[in-house]
Amino acid sequence: MSDSKKKYKSSSQPRTVSASEIARNLGNFETWSSHQCCEQVSLSDLPSEFQEDVDNLFGTTKRIPLSWLDRSFDCSPGFAKFITDASQTAPELFSDVVAHRASNELFEDVCVVFSAWKRLAKMRSSKEKWSEADFVANVYNVFRTSAIRESTFRVQCAISLPQPQDTFQNALDVPRVLNTKTVIPDCAIFIPASRTRPLSHSAKSPYKLLKNHPVVVKAGNAAKRSSFRYQSTPCVQLPDMPGFEFASSFWEDKKPVHALLDDAYRQNRMSTTAAIRHLHSLGIHAPVTGLIWADGVVRAHIDWCEESEGKTVVMSAPYCGPRDRSSNDVFHEWKLDRPSDILQVYFLVRNIDQWTTGKFSDYIVRGVNQMVDKLSSSERTYKPWKRVGDLAPPLKTNAQKENHNISVTTVVTSDASPSPPKPKSRRRRRRSS
To answer: What is the model's pLDDT at position 415?
Structure first.
């Protein structure tokens, strides 16, 4: 029989869907989030210990000098109108207590924001169609990259997804969703390596003590990419030097279709869930923020985790606005067409940058050091968090067919070699005379 006529059996493993495919399909995301123990909650559910963090992160009042509104202020007519419009819709942005030196530095920053706002206005007034990349290049990155000064700003950084925490039923289609190992957010904010280096470089550093602890050594395998070196970072790509990496915020950009904001939120939750599970595995209790950008509209959410019945439940609360303002909307939306909104988003990004190297970094140092102490005294155990191998249901025998509950089984299939095919007997045909 010729090779072209040979029939091969299709693979028993279904094709794994991507993170974006999971986010776009409500059924797929429900499957993924339920087995990851994810819950969408209200901002009122935020633990009191994080309330000050959220207030500081989203606090954008008293940032611009009132003197900028005076006619004597030296600026262009366009900039003067931009600032005046912002003061009319958000007077709380302005104050007369801003220091003169800070005012001079701030003027350069706000000029960048003004430039992004003008580009957006020009895009809106034209009749051209604009892509997600156009909005990123012409508007978003014009001011958000300049706002990140102390933290590390990474673009398209692949993040490892966490291991499911629950069993699944009738797993004909579930492995297609749960086998997904990575998500790629458009932007991620990390603590700089220079700030985490003291936690990992010396022989007595928390990283080395955890890495060499017998419980941690037994929990992973370098050959299967589950050792502590892999578990110590949320990223797929390991850093050049062994050590920790910590992400505080993830951002998702979507095409200029307002309906895609919901898809972007679900996809961003996959990134923040990974970061929360990474922090939790190291005994770190801290919130992680997310921003969604689409068609000149920005939304935000705050995620954290809580323990419930032996599982790590990842909570995600959409940001619905300041506490002193009542709103029935699920999300507060900043529309970058408005001068006041684009200024508030700029200050929000500045807050995230400063918080990452400030309070968030404090949470990291305290949590890691406590993890070392508690692991040494057996007050706490260690549990890896990253997705490893392939999730596959065990083959059913006739006796097992009545049992529909299938536990999550990790099977590393990449090293498995197929059994050799059985040789076929060949019969010589008689030649007709």
So the answer is: 41
Sequence-ordered strand ranges (E) for 107-176:
152-155, 159-160, 168-169
Half-sphere exposure of 422 (CA within 13 A, CB side): 2
16 by DSSP, 3-state: which?
Answer: coil
Helices 339-357 & 77-89, crossing angle to 10 degrees?
Answer: 80
Tally the residues of the chain: 433
Residue 346: in which H helix or E strand, if any?
helix 339-357
Strands (E), 76-195: 94-95, 152-155, 159-160, 168-169, 182-183, 187-190
pTM of the model: 0.86
Looking at the DSSP bridge assignments, the partners of residue 298 are: 293, 334
Tens digit of each residue's pLDDT (9 = 90 or more) over 361-408: 999 999 999 999 999 998 889 999 998 877 755 444 343 433 344 444
Chain position carrying tokens 């700003």: 153
Helix (H) or strand (E) holding 312: strand 311-318
pLDDT digits (tens, 9 = 90+) for 179-228: 899 999 999 999 999 999 999 999 999 999 999 999 999 998 888 888 99
Greater confidence, 207 or 176? 207
Concatenated DSSP letters for 215-267? HHHHH--GGGT-SHHHHT-SBSSPPSSSS---EEEEEEEE-S-TTHHHHHHHH
Q: What stretch of H or E contains 39?
A: strand 38-40
Span between the terminal Cα atoms of the chain, in Å: 24
CA–CA gap between residue 280 and residue 276 (Å, rounded)? 6
Q: Which of 209, 230, 228 is nearest to 218 (CA)?
A: 228
- Cα 89 versus chain centre, distance: 32
DSSP reduced 3-state for 38: strand
The tokens describing 48, both together, are 């009191």
Position 353, amino acid: D
DSSP 357-415: HTHHHHHHHHHHHHHHHHHHTTSS-----B--SEE-PPPP-TTTTT--EE---EE--TT
- On the CB side of 103, CA atoms within 13 Å amount to 16
d(CA 151, CA 359): 13
Compute the distance between CA of residue 391 and CA of residue 412 in angstroms, rounded to an integer: 9
